[in-house]
């Protein structure tokens, strides 16, 4: 196999062109052809890996690989997911499944759905393992590659993989999934690139708010139609957000970056035990990412009403996406939503919910391995720090079998690149992606 950067990039682009859009969980006859094609293409592109690792398909389309080491105990698990979110092609500057390279040199960008979320990590893992196997490297302990197929729809792929491992009595010493990245400018006043490593992730809930009425013709509306009651409920929820607070990993993050912060913020972060109550009130004004670090968030994402423009709605519904900060629970969030609405005529239904994950330690051997790989591959000027993962990932299922579950995407990502996730013009710089391969190689060599 040719292992030049250009050859690695060609393999990356080939896999990005396969439209592995998440399968509809409510459609039992959903077409999984793209996922099967992805499986076959991976097997063709990475022959050394497939000659040395054991592969099994789980839950129809997820992939689990085992790389046997000298010791089967306390293995390393590297995670990623195969599926990507849908696209609206008209919104994209470049074809989302063409994987075009824009620009040249280290700053060239690959534009494609999944470039960062999450085929960037998946293919970087494959490249790292393929090259190490080709070099004759054998890990000290077993390594598992766990690639779920339906992370974007909170599906059962990763859960099924966890059950397979649990049934075999496997308890990983380190699990690494997508999550934080190397960022600059995300934290106010911080002067160095920061590798934010998720030690926990927020829980996620979907809540339906529903108002009902008899319906009828829109020419004779009632005094208080269902749509008006629902609108009031939505505004109440928006105007009374969850309270802010400082959770231990976020406190540790600001204590870590304090020596690398300019101006008065340096002293503020260093003494966050005293200043924390004030900071959490200021952070929501500084941007959505900082807001999400210090409070449970709730936002209405879908609205539905009548079937026609001249028809009164017999029911009007709002879907609320809730992301739970550690310390909150689905039950406590539901109770607060009911209090805020204060309207017994608004039905509150929790459609799905998972509580925040346990918090993994940011000290000890597992953490030290992540930090060492970060510094060696991504730059010794990078500052690793604990972090709360803002979105949900497949890694939350692995907390059932490991106390050391982390969330880190080993790429330097600009604000624009982060904002393009789940949006149009998703992209990654080629140089950043290639350095990510080095991160996985270094982490594997320490397995």
UniProtKB/TrEMBL annotation:
Keyword set includes Nucleotide-binding: no
Domain Peptidase M20 dimerisation: 199-346
Any coiled-coil regions, as ranges: none
The entry's keywords: Hydrolase, Metal-binding, Protease, Zinc
Family: Belongs to the peptidase M20A family.
PANTHER family noted in UniProt: N-FATTY-ACYL-AMINO ACID SYNTHASE/HYDROLASE PM20D1, N-FATTY-ACYL-AMINO ACID SYNTHASE_HYDROLASE PM20D1
Name of the protein this chain belongs to: M20/M25/M40 family metallo-hydrolase
Lineage: Bacteria, Bacillati, Actinomycetota, Actinomycetes, Micrococcales
